[in-house]
Amino acid sequence: MKVNLRSFKQKVRHHKKQFNAFLTKLQKNIPKGLDQITRKVSPEVWQEVDCLSCANCCKTMSPTFTPTDIKRIAHHFEMTPTAFKEKWLTYDKKDKDWLNKSQPCQFLNLKSNKCSIYDIRPADCSGFPHLTKKKMTDYMHVHKQNIELCPATYKMVEKMQALMN
Questions:
Q1: Is 100:62 a contact under the CB 8 Å cutoff?
Q2: 57 phi and psi, to 5 degrees?
Q3: How confident is the model at residue 73 (pLDDT cuts 50, 70, 90)?
């Protein structure tokens, strides 16, 4: 289903506190079968959210580029890892991460919302939005952040809350 970002942002404003409280409650008192519930809800989420109609993650966030990502992508562009970092990345001294210099992502085609390096994209991108990690609780802080930015994460939390209340 096509994502309407304006409508999504309105929903976030209305439900953000409630969803964060729900995730915090799950974090503090982990219900039995939480990971199974997440795996059950995930396919339903993807029937309702079309990433190519959104691409908000690529427009507003930066993946973390691992050394392996940097080598692989630099090789694709026939560049050295150093040249790749100088051209497109910035180093976050606080978190010790390599991130995009600018937003939206330099590899996002804004007309099609497609990634120009999709097959070799950073691991952070290929795993996003991290809905079905082995231990949901290990990614709770990520989900709290992503409910504001990712309609799939928002929809997952919405469905989980409906199932568990």
A1: yes
A2: -60, -45
A3: very high
Give, as one character, the DSSP assignment of residue 91.
E
pTM value is 0.89
Considering only CA atoms, which of 110, 108, 91 is closest in space to residue 99?
A: 91
Place of tokens 């390599």: 98
- Per-residue pLDDT tens over the stretch 2-16: 899 999 999 999 999
What gap in Å lies between CA 37 and CA 34, rounded to an integer?
A: 5
CA separation, residue 43 to residues 14, 37, 49, 74, 132 (Å): 25, 11, 10, 34, 10
Answer yes or no: are the C-beta atoms of 136 and 38 closer than 8 Å.
Answer: yes
Nearest to 84, CA basis, from 108, 96, 67: 67
